[in-house]
Amino acid sequence: DEALILKRKAEDITSSLNGHCIYLVGMMGSGKTTVGKILSEVLGYSFIDSDKLVEQAVGVPSVAQIFKEYSEAFFRDNESKVLRDLSTMHRLVVATGGGAVIRPVNWKYMKQGMTVWLDVPLEALARRIAAVGTASRPLLHQEPGDPYTKVASSPLNQNDMPYS
């Protein structure tokens, strides 16, 4: 059972965290929210979805709507502000947005804690996103076509991520 494996691994690292936050990064659909909720429960940390905090800060109910009404740059600016604020806190598991890693300043904030990359094969990402559609994925929803093909052929693949 994957949840049990994750729980055991989390228990192994608890003592070395010293209350530092954990930032989960990865492509859209990589499971940051699912893993984050399990991890926070095991560690006794609070779970935060950074996209939800941006939505609340802007007063708009979805990332897709923020992209549509404002712009991706506006969203990214607000995402950086949220990550800056979170970097001063402790005992959080933060599921970041899939594009949070494209701004170097966000790495500065996330380095205040531990960053964990959820590496999921592109084929699995495509299947996951195809199952739920692209309406909540503004970078994929702009183009016509079926979700699986859009994800599988997306230039936003794991090899392009600026991880350090």
UniProtKB/TrEMBL annotation:
Entry EC number(s): 2.7.1.71
Catalytic activities: shikimate + ATP = 3-phosphoshikimate + ADP + H(+)
Stretches for region Disordered: 141-164
Pfam family, one: SKI
Biased composition (Polar residues): 151-164
GO cellular component: chloroplast; cytosol
Cited CDD domains: SK (cd00464)
Protein's pathway: Metabolic intermediate biosynthesis; chorismate biosynthesis; chorismate from D-erythrose 4-phosphate and phosphoenolpyruvate: step 5/7
Enzyme class: transferase
Subcellular location(s) of the protein: Plastid, Chloroplast
One GO molecular-function entry: shikimate kinase activity
Keywords, in A-Z order: Amino-acid biosynthesis, Aromatic amino acid biosynthesis, ATP-binding, Kinase, Nucleotide-binding, Transferase
GO biological process, one term: amino acid biosynthetic process
Protein family membership: Belongs to the shikimate kinase family.
Role description: Catalyzes the specific phosphorylation of the 3-hydroxyl group of shikimic acid using ATP as a cosubstrate.
Identification of the protein by name: shikimate kinase
Organism (species): Elaeis guineensis var. tenera
Record lineage: Eukaryota, Viridiplantae, Streptophyta, Embryophyta, Tracheophyta
